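Researcher: Last one for today. Full complex below.
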Amino acid sequence: MTSSPLLNVEGLSKRFPVAAPAGGSNGNKGGKKKAALLHAVDDVSLHIHPGESLGLVGESGCGKSTLVRLLARLLDPSEGRIEFEGLDLATLPANRFARLPQRSWVQMVFQDPSDSLNPRYTAQDTIAEPCLLLAGMNSSQAAARAAEVALQVGLPPELMQRYPHQLSGGQKARVGIARALAVRPKLLILDEPTAALDVSVQAVVLQLLDKLRREMGLATLFVSHDLNVVRLLTDRVAVMYLGKIVETGPSAQVFEQPAHPYTRALVSAIPGCGPRVRLEGEISSPIDPPPEVCRFASRCPVAQDRCSRQAPVLQGERPSGDSGPSGPGARHQAACHFTRWSLAAAQAV
Amino acid sequence: MHMATVTPLLDVQNFSLEFRTRSGMVHALQHVNLRLNKGEIVGLVGESGSGKSVLSYAMLGISDAAARVTSGSAHFGGLDLLQADDRSLADLRGREISMIFQSPRTALNPIRTVGQQIEDVLRRHAVHTRGRTGPDQALGFRERAVQALREVAIADPERRASAYPFELSGGMCQRVMIAIALACRPSLLIADEPTTGLDVTTQAAVMDLITGLARERGMATLFITHDLGLAAEYCDRIVVMHAGHAVESASTARLFAGPRHPYTARLMSSTPTRDSQLHQLHPVPGQLPDLRRTDLPPCRFVERCDRASAQCNASLPVLDAAAIHGVACWHPLEPATP
Amino acid sequence: MSTARHIRHVLADNPVTIVATALFAAFVLMALVGHWLVPFDPLATGVGPSLQAPNGTHWFGTDALGRDIFSRTVVATRLDLGIAFSAVLLSFVLGMPMGLAAGFLGGWWDRIISRGADTIMAFPLFVLAMGIVAALGNTVGNIILATAVINLPFYIRVARAEANVRRNAGWVEAARLSGNGNMRILALHLFPNALPPAMVQVSLNMGWAILNAAGLSFIGLGVRPPEPEWGILVAEGAQFIVSGEWWVSFFPGGMLMLAVFTFNLLGDALRDIFDPRKRT
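Model: Here's the assembly. Have a good evening.
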């Protein structure tokens, strides 16, 4: 059978209180207004095996930034488990996590290299700092480690004393990657690492990331809105919409044969992948969403009555002949009443 | 081979521009030739530092104060934009040439309603547009503003016209910005990276809107972007820029059938498409040259190019903007066999 | 770009900065070595005829007790600059951490510190300073304390604004991922980045602090005569303006004005020097 997952997330949710909309749409006439909750992440479950690369795609507002911050333990979840090698990290509070030894297990590369480097730290300071704080090294050991990992990411040693504003976009990206790798994390989260970079630099960074992943056997969570890029670097992919995972499966398969209508629309919107599936209608509100309604129903081209009465759950196929956690044998599932699997399952009943 | 000799709407010739900075003179643009015909959608594609935005700002007279035009002309409807005084340019902006920007929230005035902002443009150019906007002539400014909102597919435009920008979503602000730009039916629209940072589905919707309106009104569009794939999808013709030079100009089909400039080819090969594999991506080697150098070679790609020769260090062929497939290179790649 | 080149560029950018820097250097020099260079003992009475107009021996003239005004004015520089510098330092050292904590940690930290700052600012600041000195007594130490207290809110606000803006910056989150606890983030990450705007504040405050000390002394609540201090000198000369002996107030007042002017101009230059992003 397959090895046990490195990261196993179950039922993860995060709700933020927001000011209730004026007019009491939830029927509270008079009396106190009940605090409305924004469901940023809603009952998300996923897993990543050691050495595996999982992609996370979705558009702005889908909750992937919040999910990423929950997994990186910068935020505390409202409920759910984040099991890392068996230990539930969700029980460790976020505001103390920075000082715990488990901090070095999960590291992150940020989206905007210009924004994620302290303007007053040199490249060396930035890369060496986690070594000093998390790996218990002294300053000379940290400097040596920084030099070592800088070499791995292709950052020339003469740039180490430079400040961020003296570095190019690609060089800053490398500093960010080096910093994340310096403490040898087990899981690397990449939050749109090439979104702010030029195309030619992007290609270099992507190839670098792939090389490092293979060399270090890292498990990675690759978040991006650029589907072409996600397809290149990931084994499996999860598609998010308004806080829920609507489809997961092997990357190539999900992009070639998307099962969920939202994924289909997303894939068709890539330039060159026409014909375009147009989404009409209003995005449903993430504030106090009714639990029985499918979140995508308001914009879905194939929505029917049933979609507003019964929220779909992830359903998929179990391929015959399990061949491992990732690769073509992995499970492809989608949360929709009208996928081929849901229809087949309904007929089988 | 030249295209049919129709007078271009915008004819930029030999345009050079530099910036005075604390650390030296930045030679941002050099000998740029560019043509835009009436009703054509042209994509100006380049990476950051290629000068594509600088070019458009200079033509509208809104460059940074440190910018200096050192040569060239940009003829638009009989007027040289680079020599024109501020008043003439102010009359043109919004009326004949409009521009939309990357971030709609910063482009909109936060303390005026969106309807008022559209009316502002209409009023400013009212004396010129009277008699030019056909059926709208009879309507008042308010009605025309509402009509402009309707044309950019904003639902319930009468009510939205009284809304402030902060009440609208990002996508709607984008549409409002487009409505403001197109209110006076300009003949040229410059779109400076209007979809960078937007979601893929929103991007598609915005591009569909812009190009749809452009086709409907016969409006020429200069679409500035770093995304070659996006330009391929929506533009009739593409001009590729590198380090302040226009290096290649061709129709989209011809360009993708066979890019001729080595940089264009590299750019294409480093962009992931739906079928590419990671090992197939061939990034452009090296880095952009520092444009402050006084010893810049005539071809700014020469230090990264594997086809360079001594001739490339001596001079650079001028890009023929009127050619069907123009390329500024002594050793262009072979044209695609038809 | 090296620090020296950067400083030269900043100075060259704006010629006014050069003037301000030169004046600043002159004032510092006067404060440090003024005591030894002045022609007459500032406290000695009768070194010249009383109320003599400016002339070759007494460049600024003499006051009612026959003291040389030039010597007194120059020597007063040390006290005035010293008071101002100490007060601003105290304000800075107390106010910046408070503001950073309020901006970054939010919650109760923010509420208490911000309300405290608001309370101070609710008073007309000079009146508050008067009140503090009157209550605690007429000593140089209390002037420094009073000046520091009334300047505290400026630093709190500057630091709070910076921390508030930057707490969501990518590099602050990245710092957490690197193992930084809140204290380290405040001290090593946020504080250095809040310095450039704080520097402008420091310079402006120096000007204010000098004016404040002089003002308190002018109304008799500060430094006590015969100690030379610009405010006192102006006060001593005030009664003679009507009778025509203008020089007794004029020169100390002029020096005071010049000092405040210098520090105001210096603010921008200091900020530019401290901001690493201005180094190209």
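The interface with chain A takes residues 47-48, 199-205, 208, 226-230, 232-234, 266-267, 270-274, 276-279, 281-284, 287 of chain B (CB under 8 Å). Chain B has a mean pLDDT of 85.
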